[in-house]
Amino acid sequence: MVEEIKNSLQEILTKIDGLYCIMFTDRDGVPLLKVHTDKAPEPAVKPSFISTFCIAIDQGSKLGLGKTNTMICMYSQYQVVQMNKLPLIITCVANQKCNTGQILALETQLDPIVTALTLSVSEG
C-alpha cells in the first residue's frame, strides 16, 4: 500500500511544475511519508522546521482567528504550503514560480492518503 501511495505522490510531483516535495508528518515534524525531487531544499524538510507550523497554528487560534487550515510561506527561492490535517501535517515545498493554487487544489486528492495514514498511525 505504501508503495502505491508513493507512486501516486511521485506522479503528482511530475504533473505540477516546480513542486519539489510532498511530505506527511505528525505535529512534531516526524516524517511518515515523503516523496521529493533532488531540488528539494534540505532545511525545509527538517522536523524542526515542520514543527514550527504547529506552534504558528496554535498562536493563530489564541488570537481568536479560528482554526488555521493552511499556511503559505514565501521565501526568495521557495514557497512552503502546509495543510493542517491533525493529527497529520501535509507540507509541500516548491519553487517561487510554482502555481500555489495548484498546490492548494491537491488537498482533496491527498485526503484519502491522510485517512489511510491516520488509521495506520493510530493502529501502530
From TrEMBL:
Name of the protein this chain belongs to: Roadblock/LAMTOR2 domain-containing protein
The cross-references to InterPro entries, in alphabetical order and at most eight, read:
LAMTOR3 (IPR015019)
The UniProt family comment states:
Belongs to the LAMTOR3 family.
Bilayer-crossing regions: none
Q: Which Pfam families match?
A: MAPKK1_Int
What would be one Gene Ontology cellular-component term for the protein? Ragulator complex
Q: SMART domains, from UniProt?
A: MAPKK1_Int (SM01278)
Q: Which GO terms describe its biological process?
A: cellular response to amino acid stimulus; positive regulation of TOR signaling
